[in-house]
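FW: tagging you since you asked about this chain on Friday. Here's the raw sequence from the shared folder, copied in full. Didn't touch anything.
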Amino acid sequence: MSAMETQSLQESSTHHLGYVTGVRTIFGLEMKQRLRGRAWYIMMAVWFLVIGLVFLLATLTTATMDGAGPFLFDLVVGFVLLFGLLVAPGLSANAINGDRTGGTLAILQITLLTPGQILWGKWLASWTASLGFLALSSPFIFWALALGGVNPLEAFVSLLVLAIELGLVCALGVGISALAGRPLFSIVTTYMMVALLCIGTLIAFGLSMSLVIEEDVRVTQSFYDYPQEALESGQMLTEEDLECVTNEVLTPVLHTERTAWLLAANPFVLVADAVPYDRDTGNANSGVVTANYRAPGVMESISEQVRLAQAGPDYEVTCEEAQFFGSGSRDIDSEPLPIWPLGLALQGALAGLVLWAGRRKLVTPVRRLARGTRIA
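HL: got it, structure written out here
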């Protein structure tokens, strides 16, 4: 290696170390401010009490139910995600403009710190603060795991995906706080972005149904029914008297496989679809429910319904499919690809775009400041 190449490598390493040091400096300052205040501890205490109360009530409700572990596990994961989406914007959406309002942002900007270092440090601090809430929830997740019926891999992946989701929401909040002039506006905007991902995707998917409907499609429908002779006999009928009746009808069908991607960016769909469920849900295709049957929980049901939407219309409904409901009740020719990687990419692209725009907003010198902006 030549002397010039060695010098270039050393300069690159020094620059990289300096960049990391700057990020670590901002991160340390942010964490010290959070640890010195009471608000973070109060929020964590309220979080723990709410999650604990929900888990306690659910445990008492399912005390006599077989297979309570999977139900409680899905319930806790769903509530942790819901509350996390409510807490993360509050921890991140005033990270930049809060300092601007307090007159301390300009002090950071006139140092050797770059806009990227400020953003990364603020984001890491917000993400770390939100991970504290997730850590408080982990005992309830592992408690549900200890009840049985849940694969340990499900708990690990759930915690990992929940942590990533909180990080993405915090990135949105930090980026918006750099773009907005007032903390209140950035907090409200971040909550609106979260609502757009959670509710807006469902609305968009529902409205798209009118665009993918196909009229007068021949579909084979089967269902269990009592024969006419048995009904006229006047005898007491049992399930053994049921017969499978098959009809061909012309009916409109929905090609949901064309618009299922609209659900990918939904945080609940992302988390639910990423978890590798490994539970015995019986063999619904054969109409047999095993002794170890476990009804799918909330998050698993979300994953099943999304997979059904990806599969598209069912042109041949069997009697078993009519009797049972869910992805296990339908014999899908080819298993759809997981949708969570697409959702992760969409959310990551959105967060990256907002952070990029926020970084441009922090570049100095600033040519024009909004009216009422405090500098120092």
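FW: The first helix runs from residue 3 to 36.
HL: agreed, and The two ends are 49 Å apart (CA to CA).
FW: great, closing this out.
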